[in-house]
Amino acid sequence: MSLKQYLMNISTFQAFRSRNYRLYFAGQSVSLIGTWMQKTAVSWVIYTLTHSTFMLGVTLFASQFPSFLLSLFGGVVSDRYNRFRVLLTTQVASMIQATILAVLILMKHYAVWEILALSVMLGVINAFDVPARQSLVYEMIEDKKDLPNALALNSSMVNLSRLIGPGIAGFILEYWGDGVCFALNAASFIAVIGSLLLMTLPKYVKQPHTKNVFGELREGFAYLKATPSISYVIMMLGLISLLVLPFSTLIPYYAREVFKGNATTFGVIDSVIGLGAFTGAIFLASLHAGSNLKKILSINTLVFGVGLVLFSHENTYWLALVFATIAGFGMMSQITISNTLIQTTVEPNMRGRVISFYAMAFFGLQPLGGLLVGSVSKWIGAPDTILCEGIAALLIGLMHIRYLRKEKLKQQHNVMAVEEQHLQAV
What we know:
single chain, mainly alpha, Growth Hormone, Chain: A, 82% helix
């Protein structure tokens, strides 16, 4: 038995049975390592130029707020047009953005505003990229029972790249300079574009659309209102994105000010967060079918909060790395389980629009949170800010538990009502 066949027979990797998904996974893996290298380099360059935690928040805002504004339209585009062509277009556009940024940095003639402007450009592209990319995964999987596994493997891919990318970036920043980081990210898009072109997807069948764009947006809102189980997941993810996930914007402060380190120190801290998240993603990919994902989400939200609380005021470097890893493990569930719950329950013709709400909650509220965290850190300091974020995660985890208990009681009440009706009929 070949290694490929062995991996496909293991439940953790069962989504690899689909050729298109294997191509997607390989191409995205290379591209995402480049993406995390660029993210790390941007944060380091901005902090080096400004020495301001507030500007780190502004950078996050610039890169993700356009997704908040435009992701709903991105969802409509994903549902109305050929998702494959939309994704191919956004990947080419991302490559152009990365190339422009690399040229600027390599020429050594750049200012903060130019980096922020290109970050805005990337945010606009991602508003259309994320709904198309997430929706297309469903079409790549031949056996739809493998979809939860594919989504968990997606998250493991993202977080393995988060583990590898910042570490490589820290090394390159220190020894070869920031321009090389940006140039390698631009080159990495060749892999994902090539993998897309090699795919063999079902022929696209254009569907008639009787409503205009705004009519389809209203239809998406109505669908969410009618499915509270999905809207609740999106609402909780929005709270986490606003109040907790922007903790990562303060990591350069810890690297330089708390641990008196350099770019490599920053890369290591970012990498261990990725290590925790990657471990969490593999854990989720290994779950048996029928596992209670909502319960796991609530527990891991508490784990996320505990990790941040312990990390916030830790001055011992190796202990801080341990606590950052724990936080990364808990953080992973917010993204993966929320996406899985949505993808496995939403109607196919609504998938793009519902995922756009997911993207708006996840990507869109983080920049607002980044501004909030950057502002608060100026007044109370970065350690106390991350402590508050950890406490917020704990409270959101308790809200999850309370919701699950109410849902269980409601189900028990419905069962009792059905049994009572049955007895009366008899």
